Amino acid sequence: MQESADLVIVNASVHTMDPAQPRRMTDAVAVKGGRIAALGQDDVRRAIGPNTSVVDAAGGAVIPGINDAHLHFVSAAMSAFGYVRLDPGLAPDWAAVVDVINAAPAGEDGWIRAHGWDEAVMGPAWGNLLECRPGIPVVAFDSTGHQLLANREALKRAGINAETADLDGGVVARAEDGNPTGLFQDGAMELVSRAMSPVPVSTLRPALLKFQEHLHALGITSLTDPGLGPASAGLMDGAGSTAALGLLGDLAEAGELTLRVTVLMLFAGTGGANARAVDEGLRTGLAETYANRGIDPQQLRIAGVKIFADGIPRSGTAWMSEPYGKACTHGSLVIQGSDDAERVAELNAILELITDAGLQAGIHATGDAATAAAVEAILATADSRGSMGAGNRHYIIHGAFTDTSILATMAANGIGYSTNPLIRAEAGDMMRQVLGEGRFSVHQPLRSAADAGVRFNLASDAPVTSTDWRRTVVAAVRRGTRSTPGNPGDPERITGLQALAAMTIDAAWQDHAEHLKGALTPGMAADLCVLSDPWPEDEEIEKLLDLDITLTLSGGRVVHRTTS
Hints:
single chain; alpha/beta; Urease, subunit C, domain 1; 8-stranded parallel sheet; 6-stranded mixed sheet; 18 helices; 24 strands; globular
């Protein structure tokens, strides 16, 4: 180096995650101008000048900044800092949930918005909030983002009654007389969400900034928000609106956005996706929201479109090749259409539109039949458009597989895979009951994906689960559930460092950014974090949970530092 570094980290255990040398480690790293400038004690020592900040890692691990490739940033921020919290740690049963709701103040618009109840922990949600808080509208979103509960006043303001029809891909739970119980699933959530006023910027902006601090304190420097735009009312809590998309641009323009954020647009919610809505959405020019504003696309960019191909197993809306659950259903695609053939054809048409726009598709598919249909649609689009591989990098979100042949097809055709081990761990006991032991045992086949050569990443899907990536790593290595520790002989376990790669360099691949981030090699962005101790061996991977993040850099800028 000809010039002194801005910052160096010495006495470290640096995991470079260099894809050319996956096991490469060194003991020091230098940062200059927001990039990695040098590695190794000898070169780094020569880079130290009078104005260089020197950090002694005291033997702790240095890893690339964590890239959570499926994190609902806007919804998670509101869940953490904007809504009444109903997570099981605070409200462990339905009686406690009602108590919290009864004590909660209404917001500026007169509504009570809450988030976090978990049917897997508390039991069936059927009508539990219908009669609470008379005269005040209440909506409570569940932890999965696929269900909400509304009280009678909320139903009244939304004009929902026994005559209200279900929406495509959604369910309005009803009593024997046909009246709604207050439980809405998947696409039907829009019936309530569209009656609510948007979250005001005065609430959303501070929540985003506070949540950004929280993520940096965990060592997270990049994320993908999978679903912002005009159909936000049909996803999660409905906060991810077009206005929220614009607010992210304002934060980036003002230099206040220190996370690297990739966005998927949403033109249809958790039910009823169709080519017409996607075509109309693309024609609005929403994909160019950040153009001509001086916003660095490495900081904030719109990459593509989120598509819901099916729902989730616990709601019976995942499309499976074999029947499952108490209802013994196959589920179906939640794409618009009167039968499977029409729905598959509509999915193909949607993929063609996204591909022609030069954008990336992230396809939510939780059933094996839905996953197979999504992969086939991507391949069909490639055949008709010739724009596969290094171009769009369409990918499957969640994913379930009948066998490993689809994984081989995905690897051969550059189709990515984004999945969530912590969801499997936390909802696993319910999923085992719904799917049966055989299907659950091969759920999220990470080792098979790695062996097949699929570019897969691990993500939180927050606010569905915790943003603490350390828990995701442990879940991927152990493959346990709340009630079981995991089988040491489970063939789908991966190593801790494979999990780390899936949250750094492989997540960067999904972002078309493996040339920029995800590895600590000279010339790459100085997105990194320092842990308080060395990376643990797989046999003791739980020790990762006790490691502190002492320093986080984003583009060479210190965005988190412990005071000790």
